[in-house]
Amino acid sequence: MSDRTLYDKVWDRHAVTELPTGQTQLFVGLHLIHEVTSPQAFGMLRERDLEVAYPEHTHATVDHIVPTADQSRPYGDDAAEEMMSELEENVREAGIDFSDPTTGDQGIVHVVGPEQGLTQPGMTVVCGDSHTATHGAFGALAFGIGTSQIRDVLATGSIAMEKQQVRKIEITGELGAGVEAKDVILAIIRKLGTDGGVGYVYEYAGDAIESLGMEGRMSICNMSIEGGARAGYVNPDATTYDWLSETDAFADDPEKFERLKPYWESIRSESDAEYDDVVTIDGGALEPMVTWGTTPGQGIGISEPIPAPEDLPESERDTARRAQEHMRVEPGDRMDGYEVDVAFLGSCTNARLTDLRRAARIVTGREVHPDVRAMVVPGSQRVQATAEEEGLQDVFTEAGFEWRNAGCSMCLGMNEDQLEGDEACASSSNRNFVGRQGSKDGRTVLMNPRMVAAAALKGTVTDVCEIEEREVPTA
Amino acid sequence: MSAGDADGGVADADADGGDGPVETVEHVSGTGVPIRGNDIDTDQIIPARFMKVVTFDGLGQFAFFDQRFDDDDEPKDHPMNEERFQEASVMAVNANFGCGSSREHAPQALQRWGIDALVGESFAEIFAGNCLALGIPTVTTDAEAVADLQEFIENNPDTAIDVDVAAETVRYGDREIDVAVDDAQRTALVDGEWDTTALMRSNAGVVDETAQALPYVDD
């Protein structure tokens, strides 16, 4: 059992009681909801004639189905309109704050929570979306949940959970040129497997993690679930506090900030904390990662050869063979040079301001390859507004990118942004599953945002280190 | 349970006024359907485009849709399309089943297709949790035993597979294998305590106390 870790301390502070099943009833400090997984839960609540117990701890936004081009109502897609209307009615009835598109605060739920300061260290955060793990970047315990559990949280302000083990993943050294948080998490998943985290919460630590900004930490925590871990976290530190101090929650209330800071400090893992497992990875040895297959664990460094299935552990061989057939790649080849039809810069993993800024340094003064459809979809309306103020929109559109409105977009294709036929996509998103981006024949290659920019320009998967960065002209 | 033979029946429905019925699920018995492959994600179990719904009703027909139907919606070669597996209620799967998205639409679709229990090497956590919330056991055993069970089902599509949650065994033909059931899952199913809303609502006062003791919760 882990001891004296952030996980233990936050768990204990939120434990309500032990249930007859042996699970712990855990108080939920922040419940984020959106239009895909909550309507059914509100329906279940109505069937039982129950009310939302803690509307003040609940916050809604719309992300998966929201159109990124024409957002006039009613939406062109009837099903999307119905989901939006349902959410509007539910939050109005329950008195839940809603960052809808008219507020200027709407966006992907995992971008919106942190930027508004809703997500804070030492909280429990849940949402009906597996990438809720993102919020662990702030030292919160954040879990993706299913719809019946959303019903639980709506009705009781709490969730039934079993305590998990804690694996500390230390990333040592200094990340090299072109290497970003996304590459770190892809390397972790490759090493530990897509199911390596089952039963564990991941604590990300080490020099390479501490040197990352909040956005990078969010990218890593975001994809904990791709490694099978339901949650991942980073201990809060000065970087965390700097971010928080500028959010809505604290910018105008420095007293509240000072009042809560001792709590945030108190929940950090102790130096003598005990872990159930410790894994160390040399961050300095990493290079930009790309996936060659159809799970996030099927990744390699940009200069590495695609593995032969027979060289992989036996349990992975069939999956690898099918993946290579789907992706049309051969063992021994490299992904460098793999032709792409689409470049997607967006998603809850990599659609934050620094992601856009970094990618813009690659794109500035260059042109998207004529055979590539390239799009930038900011993670939130605030990211979008700031990027437009900074002139990033101009950089991208002048290069030939489409500049769209905030939403989940082509990450999973629940709106009009989808791959067509067997298009190959360089994507900053989190999943390369078959069919994930809207076409069952589509091919997704996961990579960091600058690598997506490089692929958009070259028309092929490309090592971003080959492209010189440029200063982005100020608007 | 719909297609299975879960026993126990309904106990003390509406015990605290308005919460749902609580059933015990000690065992599930029914014919099987084998679904082979590791890392089958929830995008495969229910493709994202079928999630544009505000209720789970009617999702059964879309379970594994892209594996089962071609671009013209013509059936493809897939166990769930085979006549002999149409009545199946026990699904035999391999490793890391249900990984990916947390969408409860996945187990909801399987349950509405007729599945009342899954036997596999391992399950993704959120998927298993979502199954539990629906009263669907997800029991595990080793790769060899799963392969044997899948082969048995292929050869004996009419033979019942008995998943005994309480005893942690799966019986089929003249065979009985030990399986693992997560402790909390077993207790919840066998004691009929898998409807956590009802359970947790009874502790509302303590939830409030816990909340008030947290520095970040305002009065």
Automatic annotation (TrEMBL), chain A:
Its EC number is 4.2.1.33. It catalyses: (2R,3S)-3-isopropylmalate = (2S)-2-isopropylmalate. Residues 8-459 form the Aconitase/3-isopropylmalate dehydratase large subunit alpha/beta/alpha domain. The keyword Iron-sulfur applies. One of its GO terms (molecular function) is metal ion binding. It is an enzyme of class 4 (lyase). GO terms for biological process: L-leucine biosynthetic process. SUPFAM superfamilies: Aconitase iron-sulfur domain (SSF53732). Keywords: 4Fe-4S, Amino-acid biosynthesis, Branched-chain amino acid biosynthesis, Iron, Iron-sulfur, Isomerase, Leucine biosynthesis, Lyase, Metal-binding. Pathway: Amino-acid biosynthesis; L-leucine biosynthesis; L-leucine from 3-methyl-2-oxobutanoate: step 2/4. Its cofactor is [4Fe-4S] cluster. It comes from the Archaea. NCBIfam families: leuC, PRK05478.1, PRK12466.1. Catalyzes the isomerization between 2-isopropylmalate and 3-isopropylmalate, via the formation of 2-isopropylmaleate. This is 3-isopropylmalate dehydratase. It comes from Halococcus salifodinae DSM 8989.
From TrEMBL, chain B:
One of its GO terms (molecular function) is 3-isopropylmalate dehydratase activity. GO terms for cellular component: 3-isopropylmalate dehydratase complex. Keywords: Amino-acid biosynthesis, Branched-chain amino acid biosynthesis, Leucine biosynthesis, Lyase. One of its GO terms (biological process) is L-leucine biosynthetic process. Residues 24-141 form the Aconitase A/isopropylmalate dehydratase small subunit swivel domain. Its EC number is 4.2.1.33. Pathway: Amino-acid biosynthesis; L-leucine biosynthesis; L-leucine from 3-methyl-2-oxobutanoate: step 2/4. Belongs to the LeuD family. LeuD type 1 subfamily. Belongs to the LeuD family. LeuD type 2 subfamily. Heterodimer of LeuC and LeuD. This is 3-isopropylmalate dehydratase.
